[in-house]
Every structure is written in C-alpha cells, then in structure tokens.
Amino acid sequence: MSPALLSVEGLRVGFRSADGGVVEAVRGVDFCVAPGEAVGIVGESGSGKSLSMLAVMRLLGAPARVTGGRVVFDGEDLLAADEKRMRALRGRDIAMVFQDPQSSLNPALTIGRQITDVVRAHRGVSTGEARRIAAESLERVGIRDAGRRLASYPHEFSGGMRQRALIAMAIACRPRLLIADEPTTALDVTVQAQIVDLIAELRRELGLAVVFISHNLQLVAEIVDRVVVMYGGKVVEDGPVEAIERAPRHPYTSLLKACVPSLSGPVGPLTAIEGAPPRLGRLPAGCPFSPRCPDAIEPCASQMPALVTEAGHRTACWRPR
Amino acid sequence: MTGPVLSLRGVSKSFSQGGLLDRLRRRDNRLVALHDVSLDVMRGDVVGIVGESGSGKSTLAGLAVGLAQPTSGEVLLDGQSITELMRDHAGPWRRRVQMVFQDSSSALNPRKSVARCLGETLALRGVPKPQRESEIVDLLTLVGLGREIGPRLPHELSGGQRQRIGLARALAMKPEVLIADEPVSALDVSLQAQVINLLSRLTRELGLTLLFISHDLALVRTLCSRIVVMRKGAIVEQGPCLDVLDRPQHPYTQALIAAVPKGLAGRRTPLPVRADVATPKTREDIHGAA
Questions:
Q1: Which residues on chain B are in Cβ contact (under 8 Å) with A192?
Q2: Does ipTM top 0.85?
Q3: Where is the ABC transporter domain (chain B) (predicted)?
C-alpha cells in the first residue's frame, strides 16, 4: 500500500449546544487520500462532509471545533501544528476551492492582485515573477487573454470564470492536494461540466490529489477514483468508484443512486427515500440511516455497525446488499 | 375541443438596468428577459420549462402567475387577458393560477404556524371559519403530512416538509394551473424524489395543469409530458418530452443534455487501476496509455 498523502483518523467535530453540552456533527470519520488520487466525498446537507474538510484545513470557525481524532498530511499531524505552520501549508501544499466563487473573491481587488498575493506569500518571488506565474495559472485554467485579464475585477467575470480564477489561485503554488467543496453547485449545468473537466485535466497534468465534495454521486463518479459516502456524521461506505456505482453495498448508497432519475430508461415513479435526513443531536445510537432504511433489522437502531473492509471496499452496515 | 388554459402571445419583458442617473441621462440599457415568447398550455398538461440562469424561465413564471406585467404581448387565461382580469383586484386570476417557490424558507412567514398560514389562504378563498380546520387537515393529508404539523412554525419543519406546506398553500386556492419554480432544487437529493412523486400524483388526481420550471432535465423527463427549452429569453425548442430529450434538434438542447452528469458512463478519464494491483506513481502512469 502506498503511504497516504492525507489520512483522517477518527475525526470528530462538535458544536457547543445551548444547554452547555456538545452536539457532534462529525462522529469518528476515517479515510485516506493517496498521492495523485481523486476521492469523492458524497453526502447530503448535515452529513458532515464539508465540516470534515474544513477541520482538515483547520478553518473551522466557532462554535464548531475538533473534539477528537487525527489529521495527518504527508506525515505531519495538522491538528497539532501551530497557526503559523498552517498558514504556510494552506495555499501552498493544500488548496481549497469553495462553492460560491462570488464570496471567495475580494470584490475590491483585481483578479491578478489576488493571485499574486498568494504566490508572493508562499513562493517569495518578485512582483514581476508573481504576475508571470499568475498569468500562467489563469491561462492554465482556460481563461483566454490571461495577461490582460489579470487587471479585471471579479464582477467583470462570469460565475464560471470566477470559479476558474479561484482554481487558478489554488494551483498557482503547485499544491499536492486540492480540496473542492461543491465547486459547481452555484453554476449552470453546462458550466459545471466544463469545471469538472478542468479539475480532471489539472489532476492528470499536475499529478494533484483531489478531494471532491458533492451531493451528486453521478457528477463525482465522472472524475474520481474512489467514493466516500457520508451520512449523519459517519462514513457509511468507501470504495472504488466502479464498485460504488455498479454494486453499492450500503442501502443508503444504493437508494441514493436509485432516487436520482436518468436521461434514459423507462419513465415511472422515482424510488424515494422516506423520512428526512437526521437532525444533529437527535441521532440514533446505532446506524444514522436506520430510521429511513427499508432493510433495517433489530440491532440497526441501537448499535453502530463497524466499517468492514472487503477487497478495498469499506461498508458500515449490519445487512449490506 | 377546448382552447389552451394558459397562453402567452408574443410576450416580451424587459427591465431597466442601472440607477436613477442612467435614467436621467436617458441611457437605454434595458435588459430583455423575454423576447417574443408564444406558448400554449393545454388543460392537464405537465410542461417542463428548462434553461440555464438568464434564460428567462423564472420571468416567464412571474408573468404567468401575474406577479409582473409583460412589456408587450398578452398572457391569457382561458382566452381572457391578464390585464383585464387584473382590474378586478387580480382576485380571480390569482385564485386560478398558483405558484410554488424555490426557497420554501423564505416563501413562508417565519412567525406564522402552518395552520395559520393555510387558514389565512382558505379565508381568502372564502371558506367559512368553522370549516377551515377540517380543510387544513385535508390539505395536509393531500401533501402527505399529518395534522400534528399544524401548530408548527416553518423553522421547526424539514426542507421537504416546508416545500409540502408551500404546495398545500397553493392547493388551498383550488387552482387550475400550478406554477412550480425550481421547487426541489434547494432540497437534498433523497427528498427530491418524494416531492416529485407527490407533484406527479397530485397533477393526475386533481387534474392540475403544471408548469414545472427546472434546470434538471432528468427530473423534467420523469414528471412532464411536454418540454420547453429556453435560452436568452426565447424558446429554442419545444415538444413532447421524450421526443425532445431522445432526439434533440437544437444545438443548445443537445448541449444541455450532454452536460448532465452521467456517472461512470460520463467518464472522460479512464477508470483507475485498482488499488490492489498498483497505484499510479508517475505522470506517465496517471496519463495512461492514451
């Protein structure tokens, strides 16, 4: 087994609740990302997918905080690193792209200034050299006439171009890991397809490892090697993309696939998952999906099944399919 | 043969852009959101309106429900012009055409309970007070909710439940035409199917005419009998849903279909070498044999 670039072990994130207790939103999450590997993290709102990655980047804001576990990046425990060290790593070794490109950019500064700031902070190069790198990065993400576009302000860019600019900023320092948190959710479908292709292409060419967070399994399956499925703050399934797509073992993964209609095949009522996603603080002691699961049996609601590995495919279920 | 229940005849809608200064300088920078759109919706039709942001699909919804007036052209309900119907305080029109909005949390008053919200709507329809309570329970049942939901406030409901209340409020008016503007796009995938199945059942059972505005072609395919594809304020293609999606004629429809995520089938990069065989290490390995 190749040593992992990123390894998340037993990660827990909690919020202080009104009554002074702690409500956990991420409840013991484990997964690894190998160098150059693309991993999709799939889950609905409240599944803990974004919080987990914010914890990895040490970007959690109060009242959320890490309550347990380890995050190891390239042999270094990030949760033990001081803020100065984290500032050096963020943007240089690990870069992150967020959902809303509008709010990730400073509206008062040019695109060029924002990219050169990142480059100068991490690479200690001259302003001229930083601008050259910035232009090269913009060109790399498919923005034409990049040299001139450096002088543009965010409002002069379309939504898709803004997300490209943020990706340019993310790759400008040649990171080894790119975390993309729902990078296409705010974009139109045709632009979404372009951005996903761009990330796949950059990954191949730069040998980047990618963590792609999304609620859309179909989208993720187009570009990742492995899919981690989260529900109720836990990893419920983690396997190679083909296994997850063709033979998912956890009922949640299988229903998630079934409830999204496709553009081919017969038309009929959709397979629905009854009930609603769990609320934090009201999670069952056992499997978080058990209240909605058609396959649930006696121990499901009371005992959390362990993640069992079989041929590189992990499933946490008492009755895997 | 009866005519269309809702029709748009050469409808255009433009908005003025810029502030007061621009207007004083008589700068003509109007944004044309809809340009010469004609559309007939027959009774009982379930029509999907698709397009990207800026295509004019939500503007069209606003005009159809009477929230805005066309700049030119006419919107007709059963052959009667919206402008004439609006003169009567828009009452009859509003009753017959109802809308479900995208964001259920901002479409409901956060300080009114579900029962009060539905009760006020029923009062507008002229339902006498003693009957309201039983009608509220009927409406809740219709959208698959229990009567215990009645006293709750919107924030105490899940997104899926809130969207059902939005639907119940629209149905309280006993409308003939229901316009749903991206009703499930703010919902988690596991809840989308519930609401789509509910819409499908209600249109069948109540004989509703539905305009379903969405950017999700696969959902439209599941729910709708007809599809209208819009781009930059104009209709570029329309027809029976399956015909258009299986054999799209317009390049824009083709592009929209090509952009839908297709899972493994949509992969443009080769499937990874299995971890138990080898992990790609070099750039050449990652590139593959291609």
A1: 259, 261
A2: yes
A3: 6-257
